[in-house]
Each structure stands twice: as structure tokens, then as C-alpha cells.
Amino acid sequence: MPMRRRVLAAGLAGVFGAALSGRTAQAATAPPVRLDQLNLVNLSHVNDPATTNVFPGDPAFELETIATIPDDGYYLQFVREGEHTGTHWGAPGHFNTGEPLADDLDPADLFRPAVKIDVRTKAAGNPDYAVTVDDLKAWEKRHGRIPDESVVVLWTGWDAKWGTPAYPNTGADGVLHQPGFSIPAVKWLIDTGRLGRRGGTGTDTFSPDVGTDETYTVSKLVYRRHRISLEILANLKALPTTGAWVLAGGPINRKGAGSTATIFGVLPPGVR
Q: What is the annotated signal peptide range for this record (predicted)?
């Protein structure tokens, strides 16, 4: 195994050994977690122009077959899309001048502990629902404190609407109607250290902002330092409420605003 892969494997095992032990002292003596004991769940939609809802104003998404096995001896497609088309992650510089772009981030910025907050019932009754500080505190009373530098994922139920007009949920006035975080809720997550320097937010909608907020205030707050946003997530039913991590892949474009991505939930042994 090449040295870089050995270092990565050892690092992942150490991370999960520490996470599962619960205490720093115990982590020093805890047996390492074997990587083949980790369970991966796919949190990404298939990148398909026939089913991909494109954010208003973004370029059209196209796949063009440019080589076939009968004609060329191999099969290849040409991809045309924005960096934030379909399931993707966003870099801090996506909204804030001078903040890190995709090629400024470290691998650890894209591999974070995660919690899932289920707001499907409230979002079903109000597509403009903005998650409140009280919602977050109520969640913590039930599940414990959100770990520092986590990705806080909202499960709004919008992942089930993907590929239909109900996903953007555009009103007659052309405004999107999707749930998200309230500004006070994100400020609370930041001020209390729960998002920290390299945490972030996740959602099954276009954005952590409520769709009606065209100022993107929540995004501007989240996208600072090394914090990221995971957007248009899929299959959130498979992501545990606590105990999992999220790993965001995708090409690292030079000065990229982020990347279209395959995002995985990484589940240590015993986490379901």
C-alpha cells in the first residue's frame, strides 16, 4: 500500500477510535477501528439531466456522448454543468470574498462528524419553515449536545421531491419555497462553537437558506473560515441522527466554488 494510503487509513482508524471511545484517555488505549467495519451510505442523487432540478439562473446541465465502443473503442461523455448542480458541497469562497476556495481546503474540511435534524413534519405544513434556536435546543435535550465542528444536516423531506416541480416549489411570483435555517439558529450554532472553524450545514434542499430569502444571509454566515455546506442531499433516511460522519468527494477545481459530489455518510461500527 502506498505511504499516502497507509497514512490515510491510519488517520481514519484513529479518528473513529477516538470518536467511539468518548474520552481522550480511553482513545489512547482503544483498539483501532478496522476500515472494513465502517458502513457507507450514499447521500447523493444520480447526476442525470432528465431528473436534475437546476437552481434558477445556473447553466443548463447536459451530458453528451462523445465516444462509443463500436466507433471509438471506448465510451465517454462530455459533461456541462455548474459546480453546484445536483448534490454538491460549497466552499467558503462561494459567498465570501477572500475566504477559502475548493483548492484551499484540507481533506479534513470535507470529512466531518454529522448530526441529522428531522424537520419533515414542520416543513410539510410550511414550505417556508425556518428552523429555530428552540428547535435545536429541543433536539439537544433528546439527543445530546451537537459536537463542535459538526455538519448539522436538516432532513426536510425535500429529497423525496427531487426531479419534480415540487422540488424548487416556485411560486407564481417566481420565488422558491423551501425550508431552511433561520438566521438566529445559524448564529447560535456559530456563536456556541457547534459549527466551529470547519463544521457546516447540510440539507436536502438547494440551500441552508429559506428559499424566500434572496439575500442568502444564512449562507454568508455558514460559509466563513473553513466551513462548508452540503446541499441537495439524498437518502437522508439512511443517515443516523447521531454518530455518523460525512465525507464529501468530487473534483477539486482550481479556485472552485465547491464541487458536484458523491457525498457519503460514514457509519462507525454500532451506529445505525
A: 1-27
